[in-house]
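Most newcomers find our protein records easier to grasp once they have seen one. Read left to right, the backbone structure tokens trace the chain's path through space. Once this layout is familiar, the rest of the handout is easier to follow. The record below serves as our worked example for the rest of this section:


***
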Amino acid sequence: MITFKRILFPVDFSKQDHEAAPFVKAMAERFHSEVILLHAAEFFPLGYGTPDAIVLEPMMDLESLMNVRREQLDQHLSADLAGLCVRRTAELGDPAREIAKYAREQKIDLIMMPTHGYGPFRRFLLGSVTAKVLHDMDCPVWTGVHTDQLWSQNHDRWRRFLCAVDADPRDAPLLRWAVQFSAEQKAELQVVHALPAAEPIPPGQEPASLRGFLLDTAEQRIANLQSEAGTELDILLRFGRVENVVRDAALAHEADLVLIGRGVIHRTLGRLRTAAYAIIREAPCPVISI
């Protein structure tokens, strides 16, 4: 059975912490999880000039500064996470590095992070800490909605999942995981695969020969994928950029959660994996990347 016994919730005292907290609480209640709030404080010396000339006095008492952060952390999200088993810890250092270190040492099952999107410009950028965690970690990572184009903000109801796959046998573990997870959570599962196209091509307007070739090739590769995964699913095939296909399918399916295979997110092979950041930016609901 797929479960998340220990959930790591990195916090930075921003409004996004409060926006993500209901989802963290719902997840923890669903899986009877312990929630660890981790705050990583990164302080920089103040001043100008050569290192010898920099006035370091404001940074000398790091322990006092950390005590302030610990006191803030002790009260942070107390009401939002009431009733849960919550542990709080503060570390000094680069946030992404401290998150990864803690997750590995404590054998965290799931990391839940806001993406720090929104706004006319920020929605095109994934927060640097979130991007680094997605890049470096092996465990599943939940990311909140990055765009304001969403169909639902229900945090405690799962009815429909969307799983986006590459037509590659290496995605077989993801497909098996998605089938098992959706069955255990009693959620309807829709699987989608994006076929190459610079822009979405309306059905019936593609050159017949090209459309037929791409569909035949994709169907054969999907069949190989399902054979490897041991599944027999109806998989939706759509032309277009991966992130746009996944977004549109999630909206049409009214998905409560998108599942994608992250794996080695920076590897050059696999359209979906290299588009993982874009999928997270565009998804109208939270994403769990495996």
Confidence is low (pLDDT under 50) at residues 46-50, 52-57, 118-125, 264-272.
